[in-house]
Specification:
20% strand; Protocatechuate 3,4-Dioxygenase, subunit A; 6 helices; alpha/beta; five-stranded mixed beta sheet; six-stranded mixed beta sheet; elongated
């Protein structure tokens, strides 16, 4: 079409999209292009600003790797990841929260009551709970993929001093739906700021801090998979998470207990001789 103008270019673009295109793809792509065009018109976007945007995307691609997902991080700090989570969370189930850019697939099996703290220093945390359906019934055989940072605030994929699956474990629950494991108390940490996402944070005058948390992916046949995080109520960054991941129902409370209260049947039973932290957090899944 020869007579393309700033006012009709969006309609012209949609006219180029085949009528045989998948309807959902047509809807999503059409809406994306409409909003991009409206954004350019609303801001009177300049060539220099457009080039800055292209440089940002190229910068993300340049450092993207199996261990560094800068595009995911960009989605996180812009609030898109959390918005998609919230759009598809059910009020009857545990809220979803961001996957983040540092999940490592293929975590080794972690036995019921297993320990992820190992030789690392820091307060011992016992986390346990029940994986259940929306009627409160336990879900036998559900799988819980767990990961977190080390006490230095780094995930295994960021830190050459850690092995590949440090602070990662995959647990299968029994007939009672119950899970339990020990680990080190998670710490708050900063998202990477040495790439294009860091430039965005600095340009906006924003800090890069995340509140401390445990990551969970919970799956079970016949149920919707859940990607989520749980956060302690006393974390200083709880109300200013730079990736907008906190939800009211994902906030939990650590309770300090004496060594004599450490339960039997866990990997560290009989080996704990100092106070430890304990948290109970149940996870509710929606059926497919």
């Amino acid at each position: 079409m020869r007579s393309v103008t700033k006012d009709n270019i969006t309609d012209v673009f949609m006219g180029y999209v085949s009528k045989d295109t998948d309807p959902r793809m047509r809807e999503v792509l059409g809406s994306l292009v409409k909003h991009l065009h409206d954004f350019a018109r609303d801001t009177n976007l300049t060539h220099d600003e457009w080039r800055k945007g292209i440089e940002f995307l190229e910068g993300c691609a340049a450092i993207e790797s199996p261990d560094r997902h800068e595009f995911v991080l960009a989605s996180d700090v812009l609030g898109l990841s959390s918005l998609v989570d919230m759009l598809h969370s059910s009020p009857e189930a545990t809220s979803s929260s961001v996957l983040g850019p540092f999940h490592v697939s293929g975590a080794p099996p972690l036995a019921m009551g297993g320990d992820m703290k190992r030789h690392y220093g820091g307060p011992l945390l016992l986390a346990e709970g029940v994986i259940k359906d929306t009627d409160g019934n336990p879900i036998p055989g559900a799988q819980l993929d767990i990961w977190q940072t080390a006490p230095n605030g780094l995930y295994a994929s960021q830190d050459d001093e850690q092995d590949v699956f440090s602070f990662h474990g995959l647990m299968t629950v029994g007939a009672d739906g119950r899970y339990a494991f020990t680990t080190v108390k998670p710490v708050e940490y900063t998202v990477p700021t040495d790439g294009p996402v860091g430039d965005i944070l600095r340009a906006c005058g924003r800090h890069p801090w995340r509140p401390s948390h445990l990551h969970y992916i919970v799956t079970a046949p016949g149920f919707q998979s859940l990607v989520t995080e749980i956060f302690p109520a006393d974390d200083p960054y709880l109300d200013q998470d730079t990736v907008f991941g906190v939800r009211d129902d994902l906030v939990m409370t650590y309770v300090e207990k004496q060594a004599s209260e450490f339960p039997d049947g866990l990997a560290l039973s009989g080996k704990v001789n100092t106070p430890f932290l304990h948290v109970e957090f149940d996870v509710t899944l929606m059926r497919d």
